């Protein structure tokens, strides 16, 4: 068969989305929160001599007075930025003499994790230091006598026992119960424990309530993570029966054009300088437009949210109605991804707290799709709060009670919502007092 090659024309229609650099940056600007936007604009001002960024005069006027009040307040707050390691190290130097045993304690400090647990075995200590078992026992004991109580423990049981041993107000049987019956205690096999020590179940319940006050992570108070302050994009005030929504100054910074510098550079009659200035002028115009559009989009989305969730701002129970991103997108005639970028990482300040915009979006549940997941969780919490603690409601019973309220959901959904509320199963909620 002879091979033949032919040439021909074929027309094909292909749809592509070509994103220009400006379009990509416009999307990026919408994604920024207030702090991220400020940093972005500051960087742009360094790259563009025609661009200047400043906050409103109102912000500047409030800064000096408020800053002084903040400084005075902060001076009265003790410094809590010391790490757990430094805190333990100071105690060792202040309470122990310079001996080989102290050197061994200092070695152990290197293996205390951020939660306060000692993460090295006796065998590893011997291999690394050559210390004898008796020396290791003495060093670990000294470490465990340091503050905070529970530090230097090898596991949770050890940690709780150290805290009980350090607390004179602990119930009489607390130490021995956790030492000898820790597994039964954790698994709530309290009848076995009560029979063994010949006490009432109410006494075991009292020990359980006390153990709940102890810390499973004694070193967590010395966490090195820094507080991140939220800068709301929107603020809403109640004016009688109406809600007034405005952008905050942080979300709408002033982008200023350096007109005098621009005109002066154009007079140089240098073609390269002129082209450069025109390019930077176009960049400024686009940037200013993008910032204004960002603020407008956030405001429009915020207005739709408070319209849909009106009851949230007036009812002290803060109920939420079912609301999806696509609902707001359809109302505003924008893409769903635009709404997603708008609400992500953005916050709304109210007279009763600050909420992320994503908080107001919740799926509908139940057969009628009229209840939000948030409202169902509130109802679930109420039922459990009102239950007989001696006979807690099972998940199936909760399904029945919710059904009587017109909320039809499955037992699996009840279990999922209960766990999200950090509520234990009925067998773990039973009390004996």
Automatic annotation (TrEMBL):
Keywords: DNA-binding, DNA-directed RNA polymerase, Nucleotidyltransferase, Sigma factor, Transcription, Transcription regulation, Transferase. Signal peptide: none annotated. Residues 76-261 form the RNA polymerase sigma factor 54 core-binding domain. The keyword Transcription applies. InterPro entries: RNA_pol_sigma_54 (IPR000394), RNA_pol_sigma_54_core-bd (IPR007046), RNA_pol_sigma_54_DNA-bd (IPR007634), RpoN_core-bd_sf (IPR038709). Gene3D superfamilies: Homeodomain-like, RNA polymerase sigma-54 factor, core-binding domain. Residues 275-431 form the RNA polymerase sigma factor 54 DNA-binding domain. NCBIfam families: rpoN_sigma. This is RNA polymerase factor sigma-54. It comes from Loigolactobacillus zhaoyuanensis.
């Amino acid at each position: 068969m002879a091979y033949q090659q032919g040439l021909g024309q074929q027309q094909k229609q292909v749809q592509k989305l070509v994103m220009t650099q400006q379009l990509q940056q416009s999307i990026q600007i919408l994604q920024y929160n207030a702090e991220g936007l400020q940093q972005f604009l500051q960087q742009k001002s360094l790259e563009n001599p025609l661009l200047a960024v400043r906050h409103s005069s109102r912000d500047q006027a409030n800064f000096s007075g408020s800053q002084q009040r903040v400084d005075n307040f902060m001076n009265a707050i003790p410094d809590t930025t010391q790490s757990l390691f430094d805190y333990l190290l100071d105690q060792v130097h202040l309470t122990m003499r310079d001996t080989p045993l102290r050197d061994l304690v200092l070695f152990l400090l290197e293996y205390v994790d951020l939660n306060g647990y000692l993460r090295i075995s006796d065998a590893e200590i011997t291999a690394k230091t050559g210390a004898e078992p008796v020396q290791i026992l003495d060093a670990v004991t000294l470490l465990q006598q340091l503050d905070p109580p529970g530090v230097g423990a090898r596991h949770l049981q050890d940690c709780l026992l150290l805290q009980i041993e350090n607390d004179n107000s602990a119930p009489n049987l607390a130490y021995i119960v956790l030492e000898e019956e820790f597994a039964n205690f954790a698994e709530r096999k309290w009848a076995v424990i009560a029979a063994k020590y010949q006490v009432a179940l109410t006494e075991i319940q009292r020990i359980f309530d006390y153990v709940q006050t102890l810390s499973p992570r004694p070193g967590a108070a010395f966490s090195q993570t820094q507080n991140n302050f939220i800068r709301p994009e929107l603020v809403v005030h109640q004016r009688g029966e109406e809600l007034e929504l405005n952008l905050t100054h942080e979300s709408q910074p002033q982008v200023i054009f350096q007109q005098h510098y621009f005109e002066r550079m154009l007079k140089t009659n240098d073609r390269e300088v002129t082209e450069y200035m025109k390019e930077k002028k176009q960049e400024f115009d686009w940037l200013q437009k993008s910032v204004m559009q960002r603020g407008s989009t956030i405001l429009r989305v915020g207005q739709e949210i408070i319209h849909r969730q009106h009851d949230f701002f007036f009812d002290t129970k803060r109920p939420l109605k079912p609301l999806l991103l696509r609902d707001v997108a359809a109302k505003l005639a924008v893409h769903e991804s635009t709404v997603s970028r708008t609400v992500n990482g953005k916050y709304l300040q109210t007279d009763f707290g600050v909420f992320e915009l994503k908080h107001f979006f919740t799926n509908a549940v139940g057969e009628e799709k009229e209840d939000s997941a948030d409202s169902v969780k509130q109802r679930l919490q109420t039922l459990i709060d009102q239950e007989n603690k001696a006979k807690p409601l099972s998940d199936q019973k909760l399904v029945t009670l919710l059904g009587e309220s017109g909320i039809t959901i499955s037992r699996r959904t009840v279990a999922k919502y209960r766990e999200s509320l950090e509520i234990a199963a009925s067998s773990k909620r039973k009390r004996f007092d």
